[in-house]
Amino acid sequence: MDEIRLTIDGQQVEARKGMTVLEAAQAADIYIPTLCSDPDLEPYGGCRLCVVEIENMRGLPTACTTPATDGMVVHTDTPAVNDVRRTVVELLIADHPSDCLSCPKNQQCDLQKIAAYLGITEQRFPKTTRVLPVDTSNPFFDYDPNRCIQCAKCVRTCNEITGVGAIDLAYRGYASIVTTFGGRLLIDSICQSCGECVAHCPVGALAAKDARQPVREVETTCPYCGVGCQINLGIRHGQVVKVIGKKEGTVNNGHLCVKGRFGITEFVHHPERLTTPLVRRNGELAEATWDEALGEVVAKLGSYDPNEVAVISSAKCTNEENYLMQKFARAVLGTNNVEHCARLCHAPTVAGLAQAFGSGAMTNSIGEIAGAGCILAIGTNTTEAHPIIGWEVKKAVRNGGKLIVANPREIDLVRYADIWLRHHPGTDVALLMGMCRVIVDEGLLDSSFIDERCENFDAFQESLKAFDLDFVEQTTGVSKERVAEAARMYATNAPATILYAMGITQHSHGTDNVIATANLAMLTGNVGKPATGVNPLRGQNNVQGACDVGALPNVYPGYQPVNNPAIQEKFEAAWGCSLPAQPGLTITEIFDAAYNGQIKAVYIMGENPVLSEPDAKHAAEALRRLEFLVVQDVFLTETAQLAHVVLPGVTFAEKDGTFTNTERRVQRIRKAIEPVGNSKPDWWITCQLGKRMRRGNGFKFAHPYQIMDEIADLTPSYGGISYDRLDDGGLQWPCPTKEHPGTPILHTTMFTRGKGLFMPLEYKPSMELPDSDYPLTLTTGRSLFHFHTGTLTRKVKGLNVFRGEELVEMNPEDALALGIADGDMVKVVSRRGEVEAKAKVTEVSPVGVVFMTFHFAESPTNQLTNPALDPKSKIPEFKVCAVRIEKAK
Amino acid sequence: MIDLQANRSSGSQRTIFVCHGTGCVSGKAFEIREALEKYVAELGLEGVKVDFTGCHGFCQQGPIAVVEPEGIFYTYVSIDDVPEIVQSHLRDGKPVERLFYKDPVTGEAVPRYQDINFYRKQHRIILRNCGRINPERIEDYIAVGGYQSLQKVLSELTPEQVIDEVKRSGLRGRGGAGFPTGQKWQFCRNAPGSQKYMICNADEGDPGAFMDRSTMEGDPHTVIEGMAIAACAIGASEGYIYIRAEYPLAVKRVRLAVQQAEEKGFLGENILDSGFNLTIHIKEGAGAFVCGEETALMASIEGRRGMPRSRPPFPAQSGLWGKPSNINNVKTLASVPVIIAKGADWYAQIGTEKSKGTAVFALTGKIANSGLVEVPMGIPLHEIIYDIGGGIPGGKRFKAVQTGGPSGGCLPTSYLNKPVDYESLAEAGSIMGSGGMVVLDEDTCMVDVARYFLSFTQSESCGKCVPCRLGTKQMLDILENICNGKGKMGDIDLLLELAGEVKAGSLCGLGQTAPNPVLTTIRYFRDEYEEHIKKHHCRAAVCRGLVTAPCSHICPAGVDVPRYIRFIAQGKPAEAVAVIREKIPFPAVCGLVCFHPCEAKCRRDQLDEAVAIRMLKRFAAEHDTGLWKQNVKVAPATGKRVAIVGSGPAGLTAGYYLARLGHSVTVFEALPEPGGMMRVGIPSYRLPKDILKAEIIEIEDIGVEIRTNTKVDSVESLLEAGYDAIFLAMGAHQGLKIGVEGEDSPRVKECVDFLRDVNLGKKVEVGNRVAVIGGGNAAVDSARTALRLGAKEVSIVYRRTSAEMPASPEEVEEALKEGVQIQYLLAPSRIINHDNWLDLECVRMELGQMDASGRRRPEPIKGSEFSMGFDTIVAAIGQRPDIHPKFNLALGRGNVIEVDPDTLAISREGVFAGGDVVSGPASVIQAIADGRQAAISIDKYLGGSGVIDETLAPPEGEVAPLEEAEEKHRLHMPTLPVEQRLSGFSQVELGYSQQMAIEEANRCLRCDLEERE
To answer: What is the CA angle A28-A34-A40, rounded to 5?
Structure first.
């Protein structure tokens, strides 16, 4: 019996078992004041404002902590209750500055509201306000302890939601205070500046430096990583002034990371935004009209043979825009040379999981992670690259789940891990197959699952023979015991889930790595059930969608192969043209072909390959050799600077569309402000080009919803998706029909491909291993404070305060051997180039491994990385290359 | 299986056990034991063993050593005593008497443990082994029956039976809340879940409390056994002992005990083959008081900040790491093995109906015997304080007892008869708490006590909930203001309001009880709060914001004591008198007879002995040159006339100041001589007539007219005579009757009449044998006077004991020297008149319950009557004012005039009253203070400013505060040899010489110059 009934202030109230009295009252629209309770947080019972009288209970219990029970009789408005409430508020006011008018939270302040509700006008108590220094060190928000009412929401937020634990209550009695460890300034603490505390602070103690309050809010999707957080853009006077996490029914439950909360308004309105088309005249980019610029593009692109052109679409743009872009390439330019950066991140996922399961995407949903019995986080620095998912991982640990972190680097999650497997970069297959071997040897496998749901187990089992634990230990550098321990932990703590990111994929054997994770999951029956699965965490906001809608050289939308004649016919019929049958070039191949002169013209939308391509010098040179380069972007990126025509697109805030997040959830973005200057939505630009080049046929779209309707018609997994269904939390594909509710978990009863396919694997070393000339291994990754090539985040001053330059992380032992001290400028040299950056000597990096991000144009890390490709997915080996380090002069 | 009956090694003839509790260890008990071992070995004494025990609970007397089997109890043992103990006692069998315990009441040496009052009335269950076994040897515990209860539980009883036994025993949580232990276990046993935790709360945080520490130091195994039984009952396989890190010795002993218990198989896997497993972990707390609260304690074990959380869910459902958990206090657990061994019925017959068993208190504060006291629940407070505790040291008066630690309440004398149990204490506004019991005496300011305890709880508040964090802060601010003289009239009500709301609104027990000290001190000592606020007066002279020098502060007339003492030290007695005369017109009288409350509060007393302030005053007065007169200013005549009825210290003081202010003053005195009780009450061996007369003449010189032999019998007569204001200061000159048959005889004299007749020079015959009934100063004066009138035998008959006797100890001492006999615990029951003598029939008394004055009430022992023959009996049992009915005044209890305490005004306009006629028999200085207040009020009434203070002494110049004082006792006042005294009424005290006076004056600590923050 889950339904209970209680009486609150004489009113019969229905509630669910497990609700607190406060929740029951709120559900019945009975107001009980509170300052410390929050639906996001565990009950606290600190402010004592929600005290009530409950018949047959002693004293004045707090509604926020007292479970509602059937038949309970509650009184929320008695003299005793009001005495305590008034006293509490009077005490707080006495201890609170009276400068409300100059407080950033004026009129947003819960203390003000409750004081007004209780009608408090007189003060029995003298002021006791302290004068403590205000911490203004954080670039985005200030902490004024004098305004703090110590409801501890911030502290609890930092523990229960983010798991960061940067702040806590310290000292006792009246001296108690919210502070960082050791009383440091926030900027010097482990605070990650997500601002969750600011969002939860009921008073002005934690307040954003930018205190402008919006007039209206527009619901949309965060444009940064693949988590797809739902946000409300706060608008006033046509400007985005604030970002607020949207609470109800979202992947993020209202939570945001530092980039999402504080990293948006500034780039949207950045003075360097491209506001007008540019056309190169006499070697210089000059302002042009749209007509001129589009005319130039039409004239030039139309002049090449289909094999001489390529289109690079964008995982940052909407599904609709990517769909149009691939349609433009295929139907207008007649080429399958359409590609985007997914090649550089999750091509092995698409290849590997499609092979093993039949579907190359996250099998489960973000919301399930916190319920996992065991999480294997391999090759993912989740808290930096997918902060909100990182918080879910920590929540799982707090809920009692086990955490195995496999990472050469001592990433933040290691702090929360039960087991840390510090394997050598590039040895994931050995590690994962070693774990499989232990599970098989110790009989921890799920035989019935294997028998009923999978195939090819014997061949796989045979291949395990090569992975005896001595070999695994020798190869990975992880002790046998550790590997076995991890295997047991994963196999015996169901439901177990695997999270991975580019630490798995960006290898010359990236597809093997992915398959190894699939093998492990199937072996233990951890597929198709809640909180299980193999879960690739996608990097860009819409990398999943860009793949889904066919911005890939080998498939049409919905992963329908271009070389399947039936499919080809279907699209030819739909688009009213003939289409090329041969798959196009992958991104790396496009750059090689451009370098070789085979490709002569490239149209790039929202990508910055000059920084993001491996062996970036080579890529830049390739672009320089082009006869014609069109770049469509919001800023004049390093790539755009090489273009012949630059088309100013708009940011996500200025257009409508959809993004598909990492858990396959199609979510809306909504136009919140008018395009800046003379910039135009990318879908509009592609339509213009399409119309001009095909005289309007197939590109007559007045609004992106019409494009989505066309996508739905042609893409079975998107078949049921239309804008009118997306207003309430989006839909997870497959969603084949208008009635289909979407699919949170894949492969529940059968795999997409029918049976799960075990695949034998053999260990292949990385392509470029350290040697005497290049004795160190360089591996690359991301910083929490920046996104991708920094096009957006480098525009945000505060983010640059946290991380303003490239750092070469290296182990103290290596640094000592090279005579390098923390903060020294060093030169990192690989066979392909050299880059200067500051050394950061840290044990986060294992001996022999150095780490860099690729966010900083000043230190273009990808000039060092190895373009060696995984033969199956054509992903380059970003994660391992050999370098040497010299002290810079 | 282990033989539980294995005896500890015996065969030695003598064992000396050195106490190794923390208190004794800090007194070098380790070194003493080593020295004993070494010396015993050196002497090659066979059959002598040296061992140690845990705490005896009498740490004040430490280091303690006990020699068994005799049970000789040595106190204050030092390393230097070792050779004597070993040679004399251990070798020769002759105990060392000088190390025996001395009874603080009788002063007698008590050699044996069991005869010491401190222990005799205790009933030790929890502490049964403390001080008796070596806590570091499990064998010793086993030898006294240890772990048999666990064995019984595991082999004979089901968990339900165990819980039932504990339930039936009535055991309640000794951590303070008093929740029934068996019921708590039952809840946890009933909670679903395979993993449960048994937690021992050893986070004893109350300042001054050390019951848990001593238990763990003295008998750690009993706690472990109790835990194991509890764990078995609730179904826990893991246990935690949460113990203060500030208890290193307890931590060490408990760790060792856990290890030994594991080795013996009382802990670990499959305990005693029963299949029951228990692992005990030890978690050291980090010194937060609030971690004694169970939910905060569990948070702390989990590694989180120790903050309480709301219940429900209760720990029994969701405790440590969300699992069902049971938390019991050390003392609760220590009781469990005994309950199992001796049975619930045995335990349940100890204590009261609702509070069973015994409670352990840490008795501290102003108490002769401080230490750990285990008593049956329900014992009256006074038995703990007086019988076990030996009462208040230094002759001070009991004021209050604070129970339950910093959040307990302060109970006044009226509660001394109350039983000590959960219900009675709660009813009185206090709590049992963990067992702190702090005794407070008259030198304790109750506002300051409330402030002190609140400052503790405020600073230990975890800060989680607003009422506790900020409410106690506001309360503390108010209390600090009051203590600093910045209190406002509404403060008390605000405190009461706030206290109620903090109690009602706080999350955990800390906040819910923190206001208790404030509430109870307001409830029982509201007058002290009001004095602080209205009069800026702290009667205990401790509030630093109000009190500069306690001597001046406490002087009813506010004489600036340190300043005149400095003049004396500089050899300037005349300047000193000028200082005294700035406040009182009777320096010489006060120098001789003042009961000197100043000396009782002298800070020097805490170092060695109070400065002899009165004697210094006398010295100054004797060496006066009249310097002060130069600065006396008499105001021009106001034309107002004031009548004063009575020429005692109150009337003459008022007259002096009013005359100086320019009013015309007439004093009416019924007797032939002016001076009131100073003249007719105090014998001249204490106050010579000429000295009094000289000071009265000074007053007359200012212009006060004294009309002797003039009895006034109504206010109307004075008003009709045209007086603008009237001050009634007739004193209390009517002696009280004894109230026994036969007292109407002429041989039975009333002491006021007796002393008056003698002082006025009448011939008074007393015969050879005189009895004086009573115990006050008047009784002593009468007795000594009788001796001087030629009596051969003088007995004072007093119904209580010397401890309760109100007469000043120095007077009593002189009386005893002169041969007065004092018969205590004796009360007259009848007087039988014979022709030439009287038979005084007396009944022996014993002390019963406490009366309202905080003294035990004497009660007659039936059938103990006996008679003594006397020539004269003087009744000195009290006086009261004798007010003519025509005055037609509102009179209060004791026939005193009721006045506004602030102005001394009575309900009739223009009429004021003061001195003994208002207060009942008090003191000269109190009467002087009333005279001053009357002068102020009357001057204001007559239109003046009411400013009576004057500057008579020259400026002092720069004086440095004293750096540091070395110990130096007060100089003895020379007295007339006894043999020269009784022949007449010569002064007994002879006074200081100049050199002595300077030396004594230099003992003053100059508190008034102390640097202030």
So the answer is: 80
Interfacial residues of B (vs A; Cβ cutoff 8 Å)? 288, 290, 305, 307, 309-310, 312-313, 458-467, 469-474, 477, 494, 497-498, 500-502, 504-507, 512
- Residue A619 CB: number of other CB atoms within 10 A? 26
CA distances from A412 to A383, A390, B566 (A): 7, 9, 72
Per the structure block, which two tokens stand in for B826? Answer: 């004796």
**Does the structure show a pLDDT above 80 at A320?**
yes
Are the C-beta atoms of B531 and B485 separated by less than 8 Å?
Answer: no
Whose tokens are 């400068």? That residue is A99
Shortest distance between the Cα of A394 and any Cα of chain B, in A, equals 16
Q: How far apart are CA B931 and CA B912, in angstroms?
A: 10
Beta strand ranges found along B292-367 (DSSP E) = 325-329, 358-365
Distance from C-alpha of A508 to C-alpha of A764, rounded to nearest angstrom:
9
Distances from the Cα of B830 to the Cα of B751, B827, B858, angstroms: 18, 9, 17
Cβ contact B505–A175 (<8 Å): no
CA distances from B111 to B8, B15, B74, B95, B103 (A): 26, 16, 8, 8, 10
Rounded CA-CA distance A179/B540 in Å is: 42
Rounded Cα distance between A720 and A709, Å, is 9
- Nearest chain A residue to B476 by CA: give it: A174
**Cβ separation A48–B460 shorter than 8 A:** no
Of residues A80, A91, A171, nearest to B474 (C-beta): A91
pLDDT tens per residue, range A423-436: 999 999 999 999 99
Each residue's pLDDT tens digit, A548-581: 999 999 999 999 999 999 999 999 999 988 899 8
Q: What is the DSSP letter of A64?
A: T
ipTM of the prediction: 0.87
CB distance B370 to B351 below 8 Å? no
> B312, A84: Cβ pair inside 8 Å?
no
- Give residue A280's identity as a one-letter amino acid code: R
Rounded CA Rg of chain B: 33
Burial label for A167, CB within 10 Å (0-12, 13-18, 19+), is: buried
Which chain B residue has its CA at the smallest distance from A171's CA?
B462
* Single-letter residue type at A358: G
Instruction: Give the whole-angstrom CA distance, residue A872 versus residue A27.
Output: 55
Show residues of chain B in contact with A173, CB under 8 Å: 458-461, 463, 469, 472-473
Predicted confidence (pLDDT) per residue in A23-65, tens digit: 999 999 999 999 999 988 999 999 999 999 999 998 999 999 9
Q: Which of B460, B471, B512 sits opposite A87 (nearest CB)?
A: B471
Q: Which of A42, A58, A172 to mutate to test the interface with B (most CBs of B within 10 A)?
A: A172
Q: How many CB atoms lie within 10 A of CB A715?
A: 24
- Looking at the DSSP bridge assignments, the partners of residue A208 are A141
The pLDDT tens digits of the residues spanning B194-250 come to 899 999 999 998 888 899 999 999 999 999 999 999 999 999 999 999 999 999 999
Per-residue pLDDT, A644: 95
Chain A residue closest to B290 (CA)?
A172
Which of B470, B476, B486, B513 would you mutate first to test chain A, the one with the most A CBs within 10 A?
B470
CA B169/CA A795 separation, integer angstroms: 75
B312–A67 CB contact, under 8 Å? yes
**Does pTM surpass 0.90?**
no
Residues B725 and B910 sit within 8 Å (Cβ to Cβ): yes
A11: left (phi over 0), alpha (psi -120 to 50) or beta: beta
Closest CA to B353 of B376, B325, B380: B376
Alpha-carbon separation of residue B713 from A311, B266, B669, B708 (angstroms)? 125, 88, 11, 14
